[in-house]
């Protein structure tokens, strides 16, 4: 999403963001399944400027039921969106969700891992419902079950079978790449996959963004409690410093484990 607050998204913001993508020579954008469906301005701009769109359905990172009421609900939702967007030439692919297939491999998903067959049956019922709805609107649409996915073994209206196994297998489908301790500027750290649909490293926001919520003289600093609180992730500051250290000469009292002047990250120094 262009903002965590949908009411803040304006036509001007949409155009400015997409224009930045054009100037960065991007030709494909993915609409993430953990967000929302964009307004007409988004797709109109992509049509007019030759940007292709990988469109996720708005499902992801969770498990969904397969009772009739639910299936009817998601079929209606996706049908409405597919019809709304069907005339946009920028729509390259429809994708069923974000990281659902990946989530079955998460170590902390003990409930799903202990009831794998039941959850996979639920998942496949949902995916077949979404695929059927989208293909009914436009049979020529390319449908991908998830991002990432290992792809299909059989893909037609009579039968739809997915390839299961280690989701990081680069021989099939797509992968997500997050290796925070690899050199972010070394292209060799990226997997040689068929398609990488997510990748990246976290970074600090712009100073103007921080200034609206924090006091520069008081709160800005590596390991500062307010900085760490705003960041939420307890392990990311050492990763930041490691990446910085690969490319810059940092002050001697910085290292991946300890903050300035021996202040442990997350501690009140």
Structure write-up:
The chain has 269 residues and is α/β, with parallel strands linked by helices. 37% of the residues lie in helices and 12% in strands. It is built from 10 helices and 8 strands. It has helices at residues 11-23, 40-49, 68-85, 100-103, 110-114, 116-137, 207-211, 216-219, 225-231, 236-247, and strands at 28-31, 52-56, 91-95, 142-144, 152-155, 160-162, 175-177, 196-199. The strands form 3 sheets. The protein has a 4-stranded parallel sheet with strand order 1-2-3-4, covered by helices on one side. The chain has a two-stranded antiparallel sheet with strand order 5-6. The model is unreliable at 255-269 (pLDDT under 50).
Describe the structure concisely for a colleague:
The chain contains 10 helices and 8 strands. Residues 255-269 have low confidence and may be disordered. The protein has helices at residues 11-23, 40-49, 68-85, 100-103, 110-114, 116-137, 207-211, 216-219, 225-231, 236-247, and strands spanning 28-31, 52-56, 91-95, 142-144, 152-155, 160-162, 175-177, 196-199.
List low-pLDDT spans: 255-269
Cα-atom radius of gyration: 21 Å
Helix proportion: 25-40%
The span between the termini is: 36 Å
Strand content: 5-15%
Instruction: Walk across the major sheet and give the strand order.
Output: 1-2-3-4
Helix and strand composition category = alpha/beta
Anisotropy-based shape: globular
- What assembly state would you assign to the polypeptide chains in this entry? single chain
Order of helices and strands: HEHEHEHHHEEEEEHHHH
For the largest beta-sheet, the strand count, sense and barrel status come to: 4 strands, parallel
According to DSSP, the number of beta strands is: 8
* pLDDT averaged over residues: 88
- Can you count the helices? 10
